[in-house]
Structure formats: C-alpha cells, structure tokens
Write a structure and sequence with these properties.
Number of strands of chain A: 2
Strand order of the largest sheet of chain A: 1-2
Shape of chain A: elongated
Radius of gyration of chain A: 23 Å
Largest interface: A-B, 51 and 51 residues
Helix content of chain A: 55-70%
Strand content of chain A: under 5%
Oligomer: homodimer
Number of helices of chain A: 6
Distance between the termini of chain A: 61 Å
Structural class of chain A: mainly alpha
Order of helices and strands of chain A: HHEEHHHH
Number of domains of chain A: 2
Largest sheet of chain A: 2 strands, antiparallel
Chain lengths: 140, 140
DNA sequence: CCTTGCACCTCTAGTCGCTAGAGGATGTAG
DNA sequence: CTACATCCTCTAGCGACTAGAGGTGCAAGG
C-alpha cells in the first residue's frame, strides 16, 4: 500500500490538482490521510471516486446531483430510483439545450450567409442583432 | 422628448433593471443623463442599444464580443469583416456544443434505458459513471 | 551534507454574467 | 400628507472552478 500523492491522483483520475482540493473543500471527496509532512495521501478508492466525479461532470451533472449519486453509490441496497430520476432530468435538460442551440444555429447561419463582406451599414449580422424582427427564426 | 426611466427602459427592451445598471457599470452602455433627483433618464437610442445587446446575449455572444459588435455598429463605414468573424466563431462554437450534447444524449439514453429500477448495485446509471469504459459512446 | 528544483501546502481573490438584498432617496396618486 | 412603487448605491452571492502569492516538503545530483 504505497501512498498516492495528489499529483499522482490527478494523473490517474484526470482531475486537476487544485480541483481535487476544491472537491475536498466542498465535501465531495472526504479528506484523505496526511503524510508526516502534512501532504495528502490517497487510497485507490479515492481515485475511483474522482473518476466517478469526472465522468459525471463530463456528462454535465451538477455538483449537487453528483453528491446524491455518490451517496447512492455508497449504499448499494438502496433503490436506484433517485439515480434514475437524476439521469432522466439531465437527459431532458440536454434535449432542451440541443433544441435551443439548433435554433441559434439557424439564425447564425442566416446572419453569416447574408453578410456580403461589405461595409457595416449593409451587414446582416449587425442588422439582425439591431432588429430581431428580421430574424430567420423569430423566437421572442 | 419625455424622459424614459430605467423601469420603462427595462419594459421596452426586455432587459432587467439591475442588468441595465450592470451593463452601464461594465461600459457596455454609456451612462445616461440624470433627473434632478439623480435618477437615470434614457433616450430612445439607448433602448435600441439594449435591444441589440439582449438579442446578442440570446444568441450566446459573450459581453466582449458584443462590445466589439457595438463599436462596429457605431461606425457604419467600417468593413464588416470583424462582425462576420465574430458571428462565424460563434456558429462554430454552437455547432461544437451541439455535437457534444448529442454524444451526451446518447450516453444518458443508454444509462436511463439500462436502469432496471432495481437496487443500486444493478443500476447502470451508477455503473457507467463509475467505469467509463462501459459507455455507449466512449469519448475519452 | 547540501543545494537545486519540483511538487506540495494554505489562503485569498478573480473569472463570467448576472442576481439578491440592505438601507435609503425620490416620485406620484389619492 | 401619506402611502407605496420605483429609484439610488453598495456589497455579497451564485457555480465550478482557476490563478497567484508566499511558504514547506522531499527526492536526486554534486
């Protein structure tokens, strides 16, 4: 059981060093034991936890949601209904975001396509921003 | 030329009152004249500017980008190449975001579909988070 | 043994784009 | 004249980090 430094934990988990300390500060990760010289010393389980957190963050889960998911993970007898609900909520959020971004894409494409590369007073980019009524996809 | 209060400006532009003050503070909007009792008094051009800013924010442009766009708008003789570049950069960003969100959607759908609504130790939501190698769409 | 130099420590402040609240002044309608 | 809405300034908070200052620990080379 060799000690894992925070730098090593960072390399193994893909979570940056200051972020690991930040997660400890907000209580997402429990405080590890310390070396004689007061340096953090992690266990393999801490690495798994960090990987778990990183994946969840990559999937856009908020820290509060991750906190709940971690509690669930620690108690395997519990019903996974909460985990399911969190994931479903996240899915709905992602779908909503995709829809708005698609709408934005349409507007931006129209703006860029309409730009004749001339002077600003003929520029559709500026024009559309000044008067939303001229938008391709008027969503107000 | 009746005076426009900040509340009226807010109603007409769709930008919240504290946000208008905030925009003034960061120099997006020039400080308006004041009434005898030190209350802000806006001109119709200020409303147009606020509308411009709101549309740009709705399209996800950052404040710095909007600052540039506003400078361009104020000088109609300039080439619109910068405006075009800003809009194009934004379009590329939006397209990138859509791509990542679609990938997330696939993963989340797999997680949710795999959840048998049993106990946590059989829950795919938790499982996938703990071991990214099991992801439907492994993007590491 | 000693120095070099990197990795570690704590703490504070900054990022972005607002939003909320305190505590007080002004303006308007009845 | 009194309510009451709206306005003012100022500071602090949000989420999820990131950056930097100023100091300590530790392993390897000379």
């Amino acid at each position: 059981m060799k000690k894992i430094t925070i730098g090593e934990a960072s390399r193994q988990s893909g979570v940056k060093v200051p972020t690991i300390r930040y997660y400890e500060g907000i209580g997402l990760l429990s405080a590890p034991s310390r070396s004689e010289g007061n340096q953090r010393s992690y266990e393999p389980t801490d690495i798994s936890r960090l990987v778990f957190i990183r994946h969840a963050r990559e999937l856009g889960f908020e820290v509060d949601a991750i906190r709940t998911l971690l509690i669930l993970q620690d108690d395997p007898n519990q019903s996974c209904a909460s985990a399911d609900a969190i994931a479903k909520a996240r899915l709905i959020d992602v779908e909503q975001r995709i829809r708005s971004l698609m709408a934005l894409k349409v507007e931006l494409e129209a703006m860029v396509a309409g730009c004749g590369h001339g002077r600003v007073d003929q520029c559709r980019v500026i024009e559309v921003l000044a008067d939303h009524g001229q938008c391709a996809h008027n969503h107000h």
